[in-house]
């Protein structure tokens, strides 16, 4: 079974703090996507990482794809209450056609 | 910006009613998906389609059915709704050659 394990599962921090969310697998992915989902809404795509070692920045969010394309991380600098939500990584393991989602990280940023 | 739409956004109905949840996308994507998600929980794939007249059941057993008569439209139907069907239903689509899925805003269904 191919799994995408995310850590931490829950995170509650104060506004202004930094944090990192991890997405790990034993499978290789051609690409990984990161989504943020707010309660009652659909997941919204944040970024797609494709190349091993790739780093992408989206304002205060920095995404990294592992060299072996088995893992990824999301770093948020100076978190704000608007960053609160469920963060999901997802992708298609090489050799399969199945799109799988990570276990999710629920982030709460307190003002 | 993803052009994928779901209606209704919220629906409260009584047990035994037949309902259809609508999903449309204007991106010309071949592949479309339906997921079921309880609040704060993981997404479960219940149906998918790789093109017109192609539909398959997903990982999670569901009493719903789907159809794909047009590329842009992928409705989901519950013939007889039950309280156990209460959940959020998310529709997604993607281009055949790309992995990235784009999601609609979801339909929150409550069956009394």
Can you tag this structure with a few keywords?
heterodimer; A: about 110 residues; mainly beta; Immunoglobulin-like; six-stranded mixed beta sheet; five-stranded antiparallel beta sheet; globular; B: about 110 residues; seven-stranded mixed beta sheet; 11 strands
Question: What's the topology here?
Answer:
The complex is a heterodimer of chains A (111) and B (112).
Chain A lengths: L4 E3 L2 E5 L4 E6 L4 E9 L6 E6 L5 E4 L2 E5 L5 E6 L8 E9 L6 E2 L3 E6 L1
Chain B lengths: L3 E4 L2 E4 L5 E7 L5 E7 L6 E8 L2 E4 L7 E2 L9 E3 L8 E8 L7 E2 L3 E5 L1
Describe this entry's structure for a reader.
- The complex is a heterodimer of chains A (111) and B (112).
- Chain A is mainly beta and 111 residues long.
- Chain A has a single domain, classed as Sandwich (Immunoglobulin-like).
- Chain A has no helices and 11 strands.
- Chain A has strands at residues 5-7, 10-14, 19-24, 29-37, 44-49, 55-58, 61-65, 71-76, 85-93, 100-101, 105-110.
- In chain A, the strands form 2 sheets. In chain A, strands 2, 4, 5, 9, 10 and 11 form a 6-stranded mixed β-sheet that branches.
- By secondary structure, chain B is an all-beta fold.
- Chain B has a single domain (13-111), classed as Sandwich (Immunoglobulin-like), CATH 2.60.40.10.
- Chain B contains no helices and 11 strands.
- Chain B has strands spanning 4-7, 10-13, 19-25, 31-37, 44-51, 54-57, 65-66, 76-78, 87-94, 102-103, 107-111.
- In chain B, strands 2, 4, 5, 6, 9, 10 and 11 form a 7-stranded mixed β-sheet that branches. Chain B has a 4-stranded antiparallel β-sheet with strand order 1-3-8-7, with no helix packed on it.
- In chain B, strand 9 (87-94) and strand 10 form a beta hairpin.
- The A-B interface holds A 30-31, 33, 35, 39-45, 48, 86, 88, 90-92, 99, 101, 103-104, 106 and B 2, 6, 33, 39-40, 42-43, 45, 88, 90-92, 94, 99-106, 108.
């Amino acid at each position: 079974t191919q799994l995408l394990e995310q850590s931490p599962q829950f995170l509650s921090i104060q506004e202004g703090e930094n944090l990192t969310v991890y997405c790990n697998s034993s499978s290789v992915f051609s690409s990984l996507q990161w989504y943020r989902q707010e309660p009652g809404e659909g997941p919204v795509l944040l970024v797609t990482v494709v190349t091993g070692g790739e780093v992408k920045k989206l304002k205060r969010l920095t995404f990294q794809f592992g060299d072996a394309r088995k893992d990824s991380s999301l770093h948020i600098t100076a978190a704000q209450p608007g960053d609160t939500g469920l963060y999901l990584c997802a992708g298609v393991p090489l050799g399969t056609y199945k799109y799988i989602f990570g276990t999710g990280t629920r982030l709460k940023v307190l003002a | 910006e993803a052009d994928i739409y779901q209606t209704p956004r919220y629906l409260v109905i009584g047990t035994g009613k037949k309902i259809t949840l609508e999903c449309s996308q204007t991106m010309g994507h071949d592949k479309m998906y339906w997921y079921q998600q309880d609040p704060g929980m993981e997404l479960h794939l219940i149906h998918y389609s790789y093109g017109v007249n192609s539909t398959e059941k997903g990982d999670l057993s569901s009493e719903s059915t789907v159809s794909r008569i047009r590329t842009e439209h992928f409705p989901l139907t519950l013939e007889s709704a039950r309280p156990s069907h209460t959940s959020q239903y998310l529709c997604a689509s993607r281009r055949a050659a790309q992995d990235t899925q784009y999601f609609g805003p979801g339909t929150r269904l409550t069956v009394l």
